[in-house]
């Protein structure tokens, strides 16, 4: 852990996992850190002391991502065993396990109101490769699926809602494309292909217009979202639309 105002030296280290740490999430009150690893361990840490307060190992639970539910003691976790688990951070026990998907679940995100979870799947040749919207108020209840990527969907995030905008989800894929979806209808509102960038592994929105995308080959891309001018396509083949979204690269670093 680093303090951005105190130079390049880390101020804290959290040691205890034996394999790659794929998921990190900070509690809403900023006092706890959850980590998940390919070693099957889920750990809960005190941020100030770096003490591991809770550990739990579940066989074959190769953790791919973790996300704290806003305003809650719950943590969502995706796994290579194709399931999504909801943890209670107070007891450090699994309270719900969603029905297994057909493919590995690569990533998850929770909506700001804590009502919905979106997860993404790996896949090949358009098989799998979807993102799925779940209703956390009815654990395991699938709402819609976002289909259109041709390779593994590596990341899925809820976008901050603009002043008069509809709820939207963004996904990035190993097929080098980013897609913006209407959260509720699963219509693809816009697509941007970054040819030569390789797999697009992570997304980070800063507001309803600006989005960062990490790629294998070409570093980070700063993207901006704008109102589309062509017709939106549910197939995910196009970009923009009446009510659609145009996506453009502002800078790369």
UniProtKB/TrEMBL annotation:
A Pfam family the protein falls into: WD40
Record key words, sorted: Repeat, WD repeat
Gene3D superfamilies associated with the record: YVTN repeat-like/Quinoprotein amine dehydrogenase
Domain of life assignment: Eukaryota
WD repeats: 14-55, 63-97, 146-191
Alphabetical list of InterPro entries matching this protein: WD40/YVTN_repeat-like_dom_sf (IPR015943), WD40_PAC1 (IPR020472), WD40_repeat_CS (IPR019775), WD40_repeat_dom_sf (IPR036322), WD40_rpt (IPR001680), WDR31 (IPR040066)
Protein's recorded name: WD repeat domain 31
Phylogenetic placement of the source organism: Eukaryota, Metazoa, Chordata, Craniata, Vertebrata
């Amino acid at each position: 852990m680093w303090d951005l105002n105190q130079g390049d030296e880390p101020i804290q280290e959290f040691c205890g996992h034996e394999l790659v740490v794929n998921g990190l999430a900070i509690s809403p009150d900023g006092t706890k850190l959850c980590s998940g690893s390919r070693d099957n361990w889920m750990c809960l840490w005190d941020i100030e002391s770096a003490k591991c307060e809770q550990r739990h190992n579940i066989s074959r639970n190769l953790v791919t991502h973790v996300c704290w539910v806003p305003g809650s003691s719950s943590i969502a976790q995706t796994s290579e065993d194709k399931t999504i688990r909801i943890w209670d951070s107070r007891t450090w026990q699994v309270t719900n396990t969603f029905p297994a998907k057909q493919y590995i679940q690569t990533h998850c995100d929770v909506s700001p109101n804590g009502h919905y979870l979106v997860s993404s799947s790996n896949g090949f040749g358009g098989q799998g490769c979807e993102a799925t919207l779940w209703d956390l108020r009815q654990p395991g209840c699938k709402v819609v699926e976002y289909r259109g990527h041709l390779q593994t969907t590596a990341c899925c995030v809820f976008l901050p809602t603009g002043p008069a905008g509809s709820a939207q989800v963004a996904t990035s894929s190993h097929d080098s494309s980013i897609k913006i979806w209407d959260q509720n209808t699963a219509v693809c509102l816009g697509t941007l292909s970054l040819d030569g960038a390789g797999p697009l592994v992570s997304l980070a929105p800063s507001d309803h217009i600006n989005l960062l995308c990490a790629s294998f080959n070409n570093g980070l891309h700063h993207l901006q979202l704008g109102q589309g001018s062509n017709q939106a396509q549910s197939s995910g083949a196009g970009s923009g639309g009446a009510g659609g979204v145009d996506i453009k690269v502002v800078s790369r670093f």
